[in-house]
Every structure is written in C-alpha cells, then in structure tokens.
Write a structure and sequence with these properties.
Blueprint (H helix, E strand, L loop, with lengths): L3 E8 L2 E10 L4 E9 L8 E7 L8 H5 L3 H7 L2 E5 L39 H16 L2 E10 L2 H12 L6 E5 L9 H11 L11 H6 L10 E6 L5 H5 L1 H11 L3 E6 L6 H19 L2
Length: about 280
C-alpha cells in the first residue's frame, strides 16, 4: 500500500506526520495523522488511536489536545484518522448541515444508497487503517488502545467492545452513548442504515455494552464527561451507558467534571490521565 507524506516535523523528540492513501473500502483518498515517539527508534511501541468527533479531521486531535508531550514520555504512538470519506463524488448532508455526511461518518458501514459506496468507516478503522499503521509505522499491534471524543467516543466504544481481540484498552471523552436515543445518532443511522432500527443496535454503545460477550475483556473502561456540556442531556446520555455496563458486568469508570463543556479545553485537561491509563493497560 502506498502512503503519501503530506508533512512531517519533529515534536518532543519524535515525529508528527500527516499522510494520505487510497482507501479501497471507502472508495476515495483518506488522510490520517501519526505521532511517533522517540522510543520507536529502538523498538516497536504501543499505539493509541483517537477517533474524533463531528466536523473534525485528522488534524484536530494532533493540533489541539496537547497529547504529544506525555505520549513522548510514555513511548506511545498516537494515530488519528479523518472522520469520514471525502472528495469528488462523496455525498454530503442533503441539507448541508454539520451533523451528517462529510466530517460525520459515525464509524459505521453504510448499507443505504448513495452512502454505501463510500461510507464504510467501521471497516476502515478495523481493517484498512490497521494494515496501514502496522505495516508502515513502528507500532506494536499487540499493544493497541482506542479512545475518542463525542461521535468518536461512540466509535471507540462500539468498535472497542466489538473487537477486544484488536484493542487492549478503551476510553472515551464525552461519547454519544446511544445512537438509538439521540437526535444526532437517529439522523445518521436513518440515512446510513435505513429505517429498520433493529439494524442500528451494533452501532449503539449501550446496546453493544449490554450484550457484550466477555465483560472481563477490558479490566476497566474510562469515560470522562463535562457536567457543563450543552449536549449532555439531549445527545450524550452517559447514564444509559452506566446502566448498560452494570447490567452486563463491564467495569466502567464514569467521571463527571463540574464546569467543563464539550470542547478541546476539556480534552486537553484530562488527556494526560487517559494516556497514563492506556499506558498502564497496555503494559500488562
């Protein structure tokens, strides 16, 4: 697979780069970013993939989170893919809104036309991106963690819980905890998957958590949520995730923080704790 380097620069003794490749599953070019820590010069290193939220690209996490300093200290490679397919011929929201289409792939495999030709983000994250990262970069596939924010938190939880053989640690920031019961999720699933809501369950974090095969696959799942998040009650609903995990036996550490909202100031405040959480989990 050919990878085009868009840019690379030194960062905390390592390298941060932005890349492009032709995606077979999404039928378009896809972009992603990677921070390689200095420890990778001597051996393969653990990897943490961050799935971003609505309207974001592969740049947001790398530019705004401030994660590289601690990742360099801990020797963790960071990966951040784009949030949707893009390019000529890729369909967008018919109403030109921000919460569907470009920048809003929701990490699902669309089954409905015209979205199904390009929007195969679940397969992209779990198959194609895995090949790109572990063939082209010095990451250790046996030590791979997953996290994300908002729509990306939904993606991290559903993908991580469905693929514990692929990911060894799991966390999220302000995730959309249910696509079945949030306006963002219902709109996206209706377009991508059609009107039969029974087909949505595999992309609903609460349903996946409630029906997880092995609740001990992850020692603990870390979720941070701002109490001042304007989307908390209508869109995110972490209380439903807590109930689902209690029902299935998953160990969830749900932390609610007074005064914090939904943005990257919130993420940058707690990213170090997430990195240390993943470093601990991936060292076992």
């Amino acid at each position: 697979m050919t990878i085009e380097t868009l840019s690379e620069t030194n960062c905390f003794g390592g390298t941060i780069g932005f890349y492009r490749h032709a995606s077979i599953v999404n039928n378009c070019n896809m972009q992603f970013s990677v921070f390689v820590p200095p420890q990778a010069a001597n051996a393969k290193v653990p990897v943490l993939t961050f799935l971003s939220g609505l309207t974001c690209t592969e740049e947001n996490f790398m530019v705004k989170s401030g994660a590289q300093r601690v990742a360099a200290e801990l020797g963790i490679m960071l990966v951040s893919p784009d949030t949707s397919p893009r390019g000529e011929g890729v369909p967008d929201d018919p109403d030109a809104d921000y919460d569907f289409g470009l920048g809003a792939g929701f990490y699902v495999n669309a089954t409905e036309a015209p979205w199904s030709k390009h929007y195969q983000m679940y397969d992209y994250i779990t198959q194609e991106l895995q090949t790109v990262i572990f063939e082209k970069f010095p990451g250790d596939a046996a030590r791979h963690g997953l996290t994300g924010h908002s729509m990306g938190g939904h993606g991290a939880l559903t993908i991580g819980l469905r693929n514990p053989d692929m990911f060894r640690s799991l966390s999220a920031f302000a995730p959309i905890c249910t696509t079945l019961h949030s306006p963002w999720g219902k709109k996206a699933m209706g377009y991508y998957l059609g009107n039969d809501e029974s087909t949505w369950a595999i992309y609903d974090s609460c349903e996946v958590a409630r029906n997880v095969g092995d609740p001990s696959a992850y020692e603990k799942i870390l979720v941070d949520q701002g109490a001042g998040d304007p989307f908390l009650a209508e869109q995110l609903k972490p209380e439903l995730l807590k109930a689902a995990c209690e029902e299935s036996g998953l160990t969830l550490d749900l932390r609610i923080h007074d005064g914090y909202d939904h943005g990257y100031y919130f993420i940058s405040t707690f990213i170090e704790e997430h990195l240390r959480f993943h470093a601990d989990q991936l060292s076992r």
